[in-house]
């Protein structure tokens, strides 16, 4: 039985240039990496160098031609949206970001490791079938869910998105898909304005989207209640074979883009709860991928807390 936690990272992630003053900046990863390297968990991790996702793999979760649109826009350095600037290298780095999460999933799916954390950028959960927005180019977690199904024969996948912003792109991609359960807990009201409790999926997938909007000021205790009383039973009913975490750390009380009050210890608690659910429903198969988190202190201490719990719970 594999007993390692994989850690996926590449220094090229720092080369995605969002410009001065942008919240989604390379220092997020620099601070988190430094904190991990100074922690006791660093030497215990199984380190994996990522390889880029292919254009065909990107098409698992995006419209035909979407990848080429991103490539051309990055080459010309044309922003994807008002909040989503790109540089000349951003296309290749975005492929490497998605590829990092795919490498994490492969390591878990092939029993090389017990679980994995991919510390990647740019993030992904706002990217829809055909639109880049919210700092996101490719939807890393959505491509990974499809990758597991198409290349590793996984049936049902659950996505747990605890980024403080609603994962509208992931919801959009799987809204009519009964094989992927999407859960998002997020501050409301807040960007992008989606994610009401009434958005539950459609057709045969009705009930496989679960949104829990949280009021500003919500903290560890309120989040714990949702995970224990709402998420646990929902995932037990769905019985996924794999759980993916969209691990944004912007619900941290220091984060400049939110008004929630989660602590690093709170993220450790959420990690424990998801891992416990995964043991019950998904043979412990968990892959976590970095999304948001814009306070350098908040993200770095939360990443360490998250990875420590992944590593302990094996």
What does this structure look like?
By secondary structure, this protein is an alpha/beta fold. It is 38% helix and 13% strand. It has nine helices and eight strands. An eight-stranded parallel sheet has the order 2-1-3-8-7-4-5-6, with helices on both faces. Helix 6 links the parallel strand 4 and strand 5. Helix 1 packs across helix 9, helix 4 packs across helix 5 and helix 7 packs parallel to helix 8. The longest helix is centred in the N-terminal third of the chain and has 20 residues. It is globular, with a radius of gyration of 17 Å. The termini are close together. The model has no long low-confidence stretch (mean pLDDT 97).
Count of discrete alpha- or pi-helical segments spanning 4 or more residues: 9
| Quantity of strands, as a count | 8
Amino-to-carboxy terminus distance: 10 Å
Biggest sheet statistics:
8 strands, parallel
Roughly what percent helix? 25-40%
Strand order of the largest sheet: 2-1-3-8-7-4-5-6
Uncertain ranges: none
Q: Please state the overall shape, judged from the principal axes of the Cα atoms.
A: globular
How do the helices and strands follow one another from N- to C-terminus?
EHEHHHEHEHEEHEHEH
**Rg estimate, integer Å:** 17 Å
């Amino acid at each position: 039985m594999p007993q390692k936690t994989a850690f996926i990272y590449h220094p090229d992630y720092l080369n995605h240039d969002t410009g001065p003053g942008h919240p989604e900046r390379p220092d997020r990863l620099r601070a988190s990496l430094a904190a991990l390297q100074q922690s006791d968990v660093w030497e215990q991790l199984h380190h994996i160098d990522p390889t880029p996702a292919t254009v065909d793999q990107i098409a698992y979760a995006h419209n035909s031609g979407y990848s080429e649109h991103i490539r051309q826009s990055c080459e010309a350095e044309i922003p994807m949206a008002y909040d989503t600037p790109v540089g000349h290298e951003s296309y290749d780095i975005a492929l490497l970001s998605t590829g990092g999460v795919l490498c994490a999933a492969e390591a878990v799916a092939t029993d090389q490791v017990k679980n994995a954390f991919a510390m990647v950028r740019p993030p992904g959960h706002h990217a829809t079938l055909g639109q880049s927005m919210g700092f996101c180019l490719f939807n890393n977690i959505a491509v990974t869910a499809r990758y597991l199904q198409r290349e590793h024969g996984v049936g049902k996948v659950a996505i747990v998105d605890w980024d403080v912003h609603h994962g509208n792109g992931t919801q959009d991609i799987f809204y009519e898909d009964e094989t992927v359960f999407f859960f998002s807990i997020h501050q409301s009201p807040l960007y992008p304005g989606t994610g009401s409790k009434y958005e539950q999926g459609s057709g045969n997938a009705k009930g496989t989207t679960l949104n829990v909007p949280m009021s500003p000021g919500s903290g560890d205790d309120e989040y714990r209640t949702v995970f224990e009383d709402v998420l646990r039973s929902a995932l037990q009913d769905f019985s996924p074979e794999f759980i993916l975490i969209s691990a944004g750390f912007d619900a941290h009380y220091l984060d400049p883009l939110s008004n929630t009050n989660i602590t690093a210890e709170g993220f450790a608690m959420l990690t424990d709860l998801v891992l416990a659910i995964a043991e019950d429903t998904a043979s412990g198969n968990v892959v976590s991928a970095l999304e948001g988190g814009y306070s350098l202190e908040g993200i770095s201490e939360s990443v360490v807390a998250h990875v420590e719990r992944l590593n302990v719970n094996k």
